[in-house]
Every structure is written in structure tokens, then in C-alpha cells.
Amino acid sequence: MFRTLGERTSVRIAERDRRRQVYRSVADGFTIPASQVEERSSSHAKPIAKKRAFQFKIDLPLLLVIISLVVFGLLMVYSASYDYSFLFYGDSITMFKRQLIFLGIGLLSMVGLIFVDYHFWRRVAVLVMGVTIFLLVCVFIANEVLNGASRTLYRGSIQPSELAKLVIIVYLSVWLFARREQLSNIQFGLIPLAVILGVLGGLIVSQPDLSAMVMIFCLGGVMFFLAGGELRQIGLLLIVALLVGWLIVQISPTASLRIHDYIAGLKDPTKGSAHVLWSFEAFVKGGWLGVGIGKAETKLIGLPVPPTDSIYAVVGEETGVLGALGLVFLYGVLLWRGLTIARRAPDMLGSLLAAGLSIWIALEAFINMAVMVNLLPFAGNALPFISSGGSSLIVSLAAIGIMLNISRLSTRKKEENGKLFDAVVDLRRWDRRRRVSSARRAAGFTK
Q: Under a CB-based contact definition with an 8 Å cutoff, are residues 183 and 229 in contact?
């Protein structure tokens, strides 16, 4: 009936070895046998299941910010384009209806990309870049002149330079991730990067689209910095970019005029460009609280292209300084959530994608808003999610879809790690023993 000391010791050693084997199996990724899982008490399983049922798989604050920007953007497009649309299309709501169609396409793209693993872009990055370059070449073949420039396809509905901004981030994220060990070598890092940016930038600046070209180069530098490029290479890239910018200003009459108007406006705000002067008037009329949605006057009497480039001035007049600052706050939250997703990403590729996409959207917004108050030389950047324009809205929503996918996979990875930890803890609980073996007990086992 009673076991000897040696027999009891043998039983304890056998039990200890069995538990260690179970721990190793769980740590190596093996599932717990169903027979053992069924033995768990329902009091432990129900609270865990209930807690996980209410967890969001994607970044909820980012999604709420995008919903706010999209809804507010629709409201402002309707207000800013009412008279402009009638003047150019003979119908006051044509631009608004087109914006709704583009929004539908953009939302479908965003939702679809939420469920596409971002590692998929490693297989198609070269193909997507090739398609983008092909579309940029088609712009020259189609030669659709709109507002003095040839930038669009299919009667102004497609603007490949907007797509190029998204593609350059995706392509560089994949390329830099693959060459992360070789970035310190200028032959494998900086020179190939300069060639990639030069090809895209050259095609875009020939349209001409100076603002898109500047954005492409800025994004290239940001991505190279985020990937861990050496500061001396980044400094060299900055010097080359400044020299190219100076050369463009000397050659391009449009760029030269914009720089001249910008400097004049800094010296005396009343001598800035007509665009900036109308924008100042809109903000002055709006005051702190604005004149009300749909009641702006400058969009009717002189503010250039109020539904697109100048829509931030319309926001300032109709919602006031508080409304304009509220929009800045929303873009700030977008950038914060994007960088948070990048920090929590499962790998470097996800970090580069999330950081690059969020910085791009925030930078686009900052440039558009800064131009309206003469903090930067005039550029034709759209205000993401707010300005009228299909290409900008669709690619911006697609970028958000990729970011939400990274957030979703990060949450899944965290849950998988949590399940592994919970399994080990539950194994300890089944034995009704202490969760962590003490040093004295461990020493006793080894004797």
C-alpha cells in the first residue's frame, strides 16, 4: 500500500519530466490535446472568450479619423464645388456625384486591402512599379491638356502621378527591406535609390507636375532614413536634391514665378500671389467660428479652383480658425496612429510601409495647408480625403487599407503570443501548483 522513498522519488521525477515535456511542446508551437482542453473548467474559459470577443482587430482610432475626414470632405466638396461645377459642367452637383463614385471605389479598395497580407507586396512590387511607369508614359501619348498641363488619362479621371506616390512607398519598402544589410554600401544603397527616384521624378516633372516630383524625392529620402541609411548618404542625397531643385527653378518659368511670389509674400503679405491673397481674405472673413457651411464668398468671386487646391481656404472661411485647426488635429492623429502601427508591426517591412504611408499623407496635408497661408511656395498638392479628385482619394484610402492590414496582423500576432503564454500558465494551474517554480524546488529536482 505504501511506496518507499525511492519509489516516491521516481514518481516525482517522472511527473516532473512529463510536465517539462508538455511545456516544451507548447513553447514549440504544438497544440494542446483536445482531451486536456476539455478538462478545463468553464470558469476560466468564459471570461477569456468574452474578453476577446470585444477586441477590435484593426486600429479603431485611425478608422474613426478616416471616417471623420471622409464625411467632412464630402460636405466641403459639395459646398466648394456647387458654383464651380455649374460653371464647367453645366450642373451644380456633377463634381459631387463624381466624388461619391470615387469614394465608393476607394472604400472598396481600402476594405479589400485590409484583408490582403502586406507581405503580398513583396511578390508584386516590381510589377506594380512597371505598370505605374507605363501609365506615366501613356500620359505623354494621350496628351490630355488640363489647366495648362498634361497629367491625366481618360478625360481627366486618372492621374498616374498620384498613384506613383503610393507605389514609390510600397516599392521602396520592399526594396529597402530586402537590402537592409547592404544600405551602408553606396553602390547597393544610394545609387540604386537615386536611379529609381530619377526615373519616376523625370517622368513626372516632364508633365509638368513639380509638386508631385518634389513629393516623390521627399518620400525617397524619408524611406531611406527610416530603413537605417547612413547620415552621410542622406546628406549627399539632400545636396543632390537641392541642386536639382535649383536647376528646375532656373529652367522652369512656373517654378521661378512661384518662388518669386513666395519670397515677396514673406517680405510683405500684401504682395504675395493672387492665390495666397484670396486665401488670406477667406480666413479673415471666416474669423474664429466661420460664416457657416455653404456661405463662403471668396469661392465665388476669385479664389482659384476652390474644390481642389484651395479647399482649405474654403474650410477656413466656412468653419473659421477653429475648424481649420480641427482639421490639422485630425491629420496629426492620423500620423500618430500610423507611427504607432509602424512601431507595433511584426517586422521591418510592416514598419516601413506604415510609417511611410502615414508620413506621406500627413506631409501632403501639411503642404496643402501651409501653401494657403504662404508658409511654403505654391504647390498643387491635394488635401487628402478633402479635395475633389478621384486619384488622390482612391490612393489615399488604399494606403489606409494597407495600414489597417498591418495593424490587423500585428493584433493577430499579439494574440497568438498571448495564447501561447496563456497555455503555459493554464498548464501550471491544472496541477494546482505554484505558477513559477522556486529556485529551491528546482534545485531539489536536480539532486
A: yes
Q: What are phi and psi of 310, to 5 degrees?
A: -100, 15
For 49-59, b/e burial (b = at least 16 CB within 10 A) is eeeeeeeeebb
How is 110-153 classified by DSSP, letter by letter? HHHHHTS-GGGHHHHHHHHHHHHHHHHHHHHHH-EEETTEEEEB
> Using CA atoms, how far apart are residues 191 and 342, in angstroms rounded to an integer?
26
Produce one character per residue of 169-194: b if its CB has 16 or more CB atoms within 10 Å, e if not.
Answer: bbbbbbbbbeeeeebeebeebbeebb
Give me the residue label for grid cell 525617397. Answer: 220
Answer yes or no: is pLDDT of 112 > 70: yes
Which has the minimum average pLDDT: 153-157, 168-172, 177-181, 230-234? Answer: 153-157
- From 182, 187, 194, select the one nearest 221 (Cα to Cα): 194
Give me the mean pLDDT over the 220-244 stretch: 80
Q: Which residues pair with 150 in a beta bridge?
A: 145
Global confidence as pTM = 0.79
Integer Cα distance of 215 and 234 in angstroms: 16
